[in-house]
Amino acid sequence: MIRFDRVSKRYPNGRDALAGVSFDIAAGEMVFLTGRSGAGKSSVLRLISLLERPSRGQVVVNGKDTGSLSARQIPAFRRQVGMVFQDHKLLAERSIYDNVALPLIVAHTPLREVDKRVRAALDQVGLLDRVRALPVELSVGEQQRVGIARAVVSRPPLLVADEPTGNLDPVLSREVMALFGRFRDAGVTVVIATHDKALVRESGQREIVLADGRLQGIGTPDVPTLEVPR
User: Fold this and answer.
1) What's the pLDDT tens digit per position in 39-80?
2) Do 161 and 82 form a contact (C-beta atoms < 8 A)?
3) Do 180 and 190 touch, CB atoms closer than 8 A?
4) Helices (H), 49-126
5) Which domains, ranges and CATH numbers included, belong to the chain?
6) pTM of the full predicted structure?
């Protein structure tokens, strides 16, 4: 599903966010990106989502070399990737229903199909009874679940999340991780950037460790992390 081959990313200000990073993520796998702030986690997610292109190396997502896609192909590519953010990025003046429906409206989905998918997505995250509520009427945990519903409403094969539990207490964090696990069980590839090592250990899923823009190691809670030579 995802392959990074010696990927480097330098931003216009001259900052090197990634340097020679290589890894593979299989379809239907749930993987965590870990590392301290500034390690390069968000840059990896932005490259996967084609919000950025690599400076060097190759990023392949679902069989597509992102570096070779034209500007006209980018919107269709991004519809195959659901994105979840730490700060939810919900439209404050629009209902929960409208927030979740937005990706479908942008994609010109027929209204009958929009209603069906929005209600199904909200049901998956346990918020079907709050369709007319505004974001301000929901708890922080509920707002995050709305963000997840919006990310999956288009039924993308890939879901990426940037610190999705960063503002949540441990109980809510586990609830959100359980939701991601359900999508993984349904065949969705899930990539989560987090600094919460306890959640990673509890998940039992593979971990890709970054440090200063380089791949430091790959492993699981049950298997010692493989250190990558520099």
Assistant:
1) 999 999 999 999 999 999 999 999 999 999 999 999 999 999
2) no
3) yes
4) 74-78, 96-106, 111-124
5) 1-11+24-79+192-230 (3.40.50.300)
6) 0.90
